[in-house]
Each structure stands twice: as structure tokens, then as C-alpha cells.
Amino acid sequence: MKNEYWLARWQRNDIGFHQNEINSYLQHYWPRMHRVAGSKVLVPLCGKSRDMMWLHEQGHAVMGVELSTMAAHAFFDEYHLNPTITHHGPFECLTSGTIQIWCGDIFELTAADLVNIHAVYDRAALVALPPVMRQRYVTHLLDILPAEMDILLITLDYPQHEMTGPPFAVPLGEVESLYARRATMTCLHQQDVLEQNPRFRERGLSRLHESIYWLKTSALVKP
Asked: Which CATH architecture has domain 3-11+23-29+37-217?
């Protein structure tokens, strides 16, 4: 999908993908990853997610990456924070304390940008991308992240022919294919959440499975 698509959605406030509550899976499963306070977490395609503030409250430094500067400013405005604005290569960076949002194209990130990252939280990135972009996204991210990494990944799966994404269906087999050569994978939880999501029922879905994965990359797994 082109960048203009997402920028336009923020411009017209068409952000049904934004969650007003802290993600319950994040709260339940993040402690299992044993990330120490002070470690830095990457949140790709972060929007104005409140999950970033929750991670910050657990003692983490947070680096969000978001295409829309409108979304980034909205995050800080909602928490009454006045970020400093700097530029790092092609990115405009908004920073308040240990929370940063880098505004720009995630595919322009480099390994030097992520050298201090210790973990990744992906609730909205992989499912936002059509199939043709998902392999590119995963390959790019794993190529530039430090070798040893914990990733908490949340995906959706449904009959793709029943609805045009985003969010897109990303079945278990595809997750395995995308990450198999670079990470070990544990499926922490899976359930049908269609009853809790009437807007997806209205769009014609017959099922909607949400899955939570813990991925661990390492120097030994990477080719």
C-alpha cells in the first residue's frame, strides 16, 4: 500500500485501527519476555498507540516509527507532553523523556538507527501490510535489528476473500514462513474474537482469529 493511503486516513480521521485501551495481550504476555526496565522497545507503525505509554510506564525507553506526523503529534498532545523536534536523516523525531516517535518511512531505517533496541512490539504493523509488502517488511526489520531480539507479534486471521484489508489476514503458516529462518516462534494464545468486534461482522466476516506470538531471534538462528 502506498504511503499516501495512510496519510490520507489520518487526515480524515479514519483511524478505526486505533485502540482506545491498552492492549490486554500486551499487558498479559509482555512480562513473560523478561525485558528489564530501561531496555528499549521498537514499536513499528505505531500511530498514536497508548501501548507506547504503557511500555514507558513499565520502565522501558520507547521508539515508535510512524509515517504520519499528525499521528505522532496527536500522541504527545493526548498526554499533554511537549516533545522536542529534531531530524535524523529522513526522519523527523519527536522526543519527550525516553519516548521517541520517528516520523517517516520504516523502510528507510538503518541498522545504526536501531543499535540500542532490545525488543519489538508489533500489534499493527504486519497486519497493516498486503502480502506483497510483508516479506519485505520482515526481511528489512530483521536485517537491521540487533541479532538477539524478542518480538511480541499480534496478528489476525480470517477468510481474506470475505473482506478487503487492512487489516489483512496473516495465518499461522505465513508467520512461520516469514520468520522461520531467523527466529524461533511460540504461539502464546489464539482465539476467535469476532463476537467482540461487530464492525468486522458488519463487513461480512465469518470468523476472526487473533493470535499472539513470541519470536526470539539470535545470532545462531540468523543465516
From this structure: 3-Layer(aba) Sandwich (3.40)
